[in-house]
């Protein structure tokens, strides 16, 4: 185990954090281990933030005697993370590490009634990720698949005789003759939309392959979408939740958006397809005619019903999620959440088949809920300032992961009837116990249209109400993403508070958890009420005696970056510094250059050339680039050049405009990052630049001077 002393402030990059020599004879690569961290003066620094362990993929064994999970740590030196497999008893005791490899394991699943644990790992022979299995003590590791292009995710049938895997194929639009004799050409011929997605050019797509499993090896794989130029699971986030075997193992449901090119780029119409394994391999579209996203199919324990999540509105990727239940004989379906103002995530049937448990955003948090299938009655099982996710029925109660703004995920047990939640793990106790205390408070802020808005206020470490502090307005991305009790490794409120800032985090118009009207209002109104909500929250908190109203900044990414650019031209002196990451600066350019066209088309209301479309014209009239003449505050802009959702050119245009307007401006460019900043060294650099910039304009003596140079 390596030991690193983390000094106060922005530390020098440690050389050994999280890295050690491998004792694994199979590989000479260094294996990332848990770092030993000693913190001075309770200060959460970027290096400490990257040292937190990250628990995920909680998977209880069928007999309930063991819980398998992955735990990952990062190495700053190696500039990557690594997830290993662990097991523990249900009370958190007897934690054992089962793997010790230089590359991550994932997609855990117990097979053979818990006699073995299946997972994805890099195969030593092919170097590709394949399905493996091992005994519960980590012995007897064996590779089960030999897919030419590796395996992205998998699921075994309940009887253990079938396995479905996702593996990539080449798209169906290559002209081999055109490229004959040109093995070194880098050219790509494009003849339709959706030629790139998030951070990659579409040179391959995943397909579902169904195979047999004899207990030793998986074989006989058949592409059940052969000849179809569509992806399954859906990029970029789809995984094993895209598949559902019936309890009798005779049927398989998969999720796909069977569209391509321009149709794909302008649609969110995914469907659930029933593949009959025994009946001549027939396929039935279970959600035909439903124009929005249909995802996450889960069979009831007896196979008589199917639960899934569904959005009703075409093109609207942030529509209310409905919990649908389908009768698998009549194929009739019901919306169990039609009369419920919130919406669920990550469904799980309870063993009796009478109810479904899930987590869902509600009034600024994400509690655990149960819904009765017969009468659609919803019961909230948890409360408090927490977000829960990955809820699983377990021995009459529920397991879940839980986090908030002050600490990352840990495993907890939720009583079936609600009540006191029991924390099972303390993955980061050693780090958290060394940090200075930070408090989170909930404030109800009056809005300009007479409503009340939930706003989180995070107070600085060792807060003294008799002092005045600089403040930061946090602008959420999405735009329809909840400002709940989330824990982020980049937009981390605790590290902001540790650096002496009051953080203002409003649940402005356009975020889920406050009803469909509140969530949907933002579409077609980008420069409207949600911006007035931001200004209302800023004014309300800046008026508190502990906030220095002359030292307030605004920060945000994606739509939050758009918000910062928009506020830059409309804040009327409220902000002394601004930080925008991956933000939309020119809405007309964004409409044409993003890849998922449905999002821009729906949320912006239409195309720029639709002159009779009042909604679209109002949207484009509010584009931040039209108001640069009003910009006065210094601004930091950060971008990733692999970001195909909001191109780096958006930030570069904003930087150029700010510079030409005479503002104090900085830009941080990552050639190898996408919409996020994921690599450890890049993440640390981002935090260092972020705080250096804010400290310069919100803390230094210069902050008392005018916020920016005179505009040209």
Map the helices and strands.
Layout lengths: L2 E4 L12 E2 L10 E2 L3 E4 L6 H6 L2 E7 L6 E9 L4 E9 L7 E2 L8 E6 L4 E7 L6 E6 L7 E2 L9 E4 L5 E8 L26 E2 L2 E2 L3 E9 L4 E6 L19 E3 L5 E6 L4 H5 L5 E6 L6 E3 L8 E6 L5 E6 L11 E6 L5 E3 L7 E7 L5 E7 L6 E5 L5 E3 L6 E8 L2 E8 L2 E8 L7 E2 L5 H4 L6 E8 L5 E8 L9 E7 L17 H6 L3 E5 L9 H5 L8 H14 L4 E11 L1 H10 L8 E5 L5 H7 L3 H8 L9 H8 L13 E6 L7 H13 L4 E6 L9 H19 L14
Parallel strand pairs: 1-4, 37-38, 37-39, 39-40, 40-41, 41-42
Antiparallel strand pairs: 2-3, 5-6, 6-7, 7-8, 9-10, 10-11, 11-12, 13-14, 14-17, 15-16, 17-18, 19-20, 20-21, 21-22, 23-24, 24-25, 25-26, 27-28, 28-29, 29-30, 31-32, 32-33, 33-34, 35-36, 36-38
Task: Give your account of this protein's structure.
With 712 residues, the protein is of the alpha+beta class. It starts with a strand and ends in a 14-residue tail after the last helix. The model is unreliable at 1-27 and 705-712 (pLDDT under 50).
Q: C-alpha Rg, in Å? A: 26 Å
Strand order of the largest sheet: 35-36-38-37-39-40-41-42
Termini separation comes to: 56 Å
Low-confidence segments, given as residue ranges, are: 1-27, 705-712
Structural category is: alpha+beta
Calculate the mean pLDDT score and round it. 93
Give the DSSP E fraction (strand runs of 2 or more residues). Answer: 25-35%
> Helicity range of the residues?
10-25%
Key phrases:
712 residues, alpha+beta, eight-stranded mixed sheet, four-stranded antiparallel sheet, 12 helices, 15% helix, disordered C terminus
């Amino acid at each position: 185990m390596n030991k690193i002393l983390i000094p106060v402030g922005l530390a020098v990059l440690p050389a050994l954090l999280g890295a050690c020599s491998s004792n694994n004879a199979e590989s000479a690569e260094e294996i990332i281990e848990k770092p030993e961290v000693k913190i001075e003066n309770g200060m959460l620094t970027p290096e400490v933030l990257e040292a937190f362990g990250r628990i995920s993929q909680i998977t209880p064994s069928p007999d309930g005697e063991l819980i398998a999970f992955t735990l990952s740590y990062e190495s700053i030196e190696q500039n990557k993370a690594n997830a290993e497999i662990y097991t523990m008893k249900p009370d958190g005791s007897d934690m054992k590490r089962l793997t010790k490899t230089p590359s991550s394991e994932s997609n855990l699943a117990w097979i053979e009634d818990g006699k073995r644990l299946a997972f994805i790992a890099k195969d030593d022979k092919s170097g590709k990720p394949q399905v493996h299995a091992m005994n519960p003590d980590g012995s007897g590791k064996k590779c089960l698949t030999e897919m030419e292009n590796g395996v992205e995710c998998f699921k075994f049938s309940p009887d253990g005789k079938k396995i479905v895997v996702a593996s990539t194929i080449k798209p169906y639009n290559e002209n081999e003759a055109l490229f004959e004799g040109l093995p070194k050409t880098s050219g790509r011929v494009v003849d339709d939309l959706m030629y790139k997605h998030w951070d990659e050019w579409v040179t391959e797509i995943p397909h579902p392959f169904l195979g047999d499993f004899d207990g030793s090896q998986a074989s006989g794989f058949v592409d059940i979408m052969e000849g179809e130029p569509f992806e399954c699971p859906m990029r970029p986030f789809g995984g094993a939740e895209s598949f559902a075997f019936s309890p009798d193992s005779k049927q398989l449901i998969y999720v796909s958006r069977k569209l391509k090119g321009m149709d794909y780029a302008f649609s969110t119409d995914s469907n659930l397809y029933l593949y009959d394994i025994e009946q001549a391999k027939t396929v039935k579209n279970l959600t035909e005619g439903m124009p929005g996203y249909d995802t996450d199919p889960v069979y009831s324990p007896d196979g008589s019903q199917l639960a899934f999540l569904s959005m009703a509105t075409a093109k609207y990727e942030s529509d209310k999620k409905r919990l649908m239940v389908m009768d698998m004989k009549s194929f009739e379906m019901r919306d169990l959440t039609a009369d419920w103002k919130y919406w669920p995530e990550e469904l799980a049937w309870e063993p009796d088949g009478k109810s479904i448990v899930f987590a869902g955003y509600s009034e600024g948090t994400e509690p655990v809920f149960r819904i009765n299938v017969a009468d659609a009655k919803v019961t909230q099982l948890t409360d408090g300032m927490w977000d829960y996710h990955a809820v699983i029925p377990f021995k009459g109660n529920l397991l879940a992961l839980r986090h908030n703004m002050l600490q990352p995920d840990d495993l907890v047990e939720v009583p079936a009837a609600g009540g006191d939640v029991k924390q099972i793990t303390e993955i980061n106790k050693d780090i958290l116990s060394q940090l200075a205390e930070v408090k989170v408070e909930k404030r109800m802020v009056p809005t300009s249209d007479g409503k009340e808005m939930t706003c989180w206020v995070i107070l600085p470490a060792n807060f003294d109400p008799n002092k005045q502090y600089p403040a930061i307005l946090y602008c959420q991305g999405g735009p329809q993403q909840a400002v709940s009790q989330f824990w982020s490794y980049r937009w981390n409120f605790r590290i902001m508070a540790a650096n002496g800032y009051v953080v203002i985090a409003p649940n402005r118009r356009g975020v889920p958890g406050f009803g469909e009207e509140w969530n949907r209002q933002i579409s077609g109104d980008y420069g409207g009420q949600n911006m007035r909500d931001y200004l209302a929250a800023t004014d309300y908190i800046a008026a508190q005696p502990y906030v220095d109203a002359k030292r307030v900044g605004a920060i945000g990414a994606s739509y939050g970056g758009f918000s910062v650019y928009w506020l830059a031209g409309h804040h009327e002196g409220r902000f002394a510094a601004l930080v925008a990451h991956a933000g939309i600066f020119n809405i007309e350019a964004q409409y044409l250059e993003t890849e998922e066209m449905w999002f821009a088309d729906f949320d912006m209301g239409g195309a720029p050339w639709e002159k009779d479309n009042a909604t679209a014209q109002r949207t484009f009239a509010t584009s931040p680039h039209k108001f640069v003449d009003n910009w006065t505050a210094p601004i930091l802009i950060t971008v990733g050049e692999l970001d195909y959702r909001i191109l780096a050119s958006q930030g570069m245009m904003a930087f150029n405009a700010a510079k030409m307007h005479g503002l104090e401006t900085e830009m941080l460019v990552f050639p190898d990052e996408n919409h996020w900043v994921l690599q450890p060294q890049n993440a640390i650099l981002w935090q260092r630049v972020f705080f250096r910039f804010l400290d310069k304009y919100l803390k230094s003596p210069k902050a008392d001077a005018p916020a920016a140079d005179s505009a040209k």
